[in-house]
Amino acid sequence: MRNKTIIRSLIILTIVAAVLTFIKLPYYITQPGMATELAPIVEVENGYDERGSFSLTTVRFGRANPLTYLWAQFNEFYYIHPLEEIRGEDESDEEYLNRQLHMMETSQESAITVAYKKAGKEVDYKFHGVYVLNVLKDMPAAGKLEAGDRIYKVNDQEFETSDEFIEYVSGIKVGKDVLISFERNGDEKETAVKLAPFPEDPNKSGIGISLLTDREIIVEPEITLNTEKIGGPSAGLMMTLEIYNQLTKEDLTKGYKIAGTGTIATNGEVGPIGGISQKIVAADNAGVDIFLAPNEKDIPTSNYNEAVKTAEKINATMKIVPVDTFEEAVVYLTDLDEKR
């Protein structure tokens, strides 16, 4: 009888746990992710090999349910974030994911530009229109356009950049219709959208979308980046280093396992990111030798300073290196002795 009671209790607990996983709370949970080598992701045609490795570091995140929320309370490097801290106002999960993927695309363009120019290679662009990042629910485009749509024409006027699109549309009177030609999932479509003032700024009008220029970067030798499942801009610095290392004969890794994080601008500046402590934990778990962290001109709250504190807390042996620019990272790695 006692065994039946135990079995019955276990079944009930299993059912309750399963049900709780489907309950979505208004929070996201982030936790240490992985250190992922970039050589299999970045492929420069006829590029040079490396003895060591460059790795990007990730943070895992997901919508909280009662079980994960409770679990995060007892794990130091599991962080709880309100929805509005992660997603924009009125932004859906799909729009958030779409925004992250497009931010990665922009980061890739910057990484390629910086690396190829540093290697003395030419960089050119081919424009394809503008991407819709998100749609405001109380504006005319809602229900007509979706995140991920590629707009290539308005009133038979073709556009190369988001700035050109905004300049053209802002010159049209409120209440007038504009004919939007766009592509969705490979299908070409058209829709008429009426211009309206923005609720938070009546002096400004539009159709209620945020945009990103869709452009293709053209370089020689050709490059392939397999980053379909990676979102956000935080891998910019490490992608730039991997691309540059494959373009040049000298191996910057010197046989070390090198990881890091930081955005990259087209002028080579390295910017801060979120989740630096979790990325330090991920790098330490992967046995990384050197970690490059955004220095933010050495402000007290910089990613670098937080990374050093976290490394000390977890007794990590890897060296934490502050960088403000891609050039600084290259100089540091160039001066490294070969790993024995």
UniProtKB/TrEMBL annotation:
One GO BP annotation of this record: proteolysis
Lon proteolytic domain spans which residues? 228-336
Q: What residues sit in the active site?
A: S234, K279
Q: Which UniProt keywords apply?
A: Hydrolase, Membrane, Protease, Serine protease, Transmembrane, Transmembrane helix
Catalyzed reactions per annotation: Hydrolysis of proteins in presence of ATP
Query: Which top-level enzyme class is recorded in the Swiss-Prot or TrEMBL entry?
Result: hydrolase
EC code(s) of this entry: 3.4.21.53
Superkingdom classification of source: Bacteria
Q: Name one GO molecular function term.
A: peptidase activity
UniProt signal peptide:
none
* UniProt keyword annotation of Membrane present: yes
PDZ domain span: 111-160
Question: Which family does the similarity line name?
Answer: Belongs to the peptidase S16 family.
Q: What is the protein's given name?
A: endopeptidase La
Species of origin: Metabacillus herbersteinensis
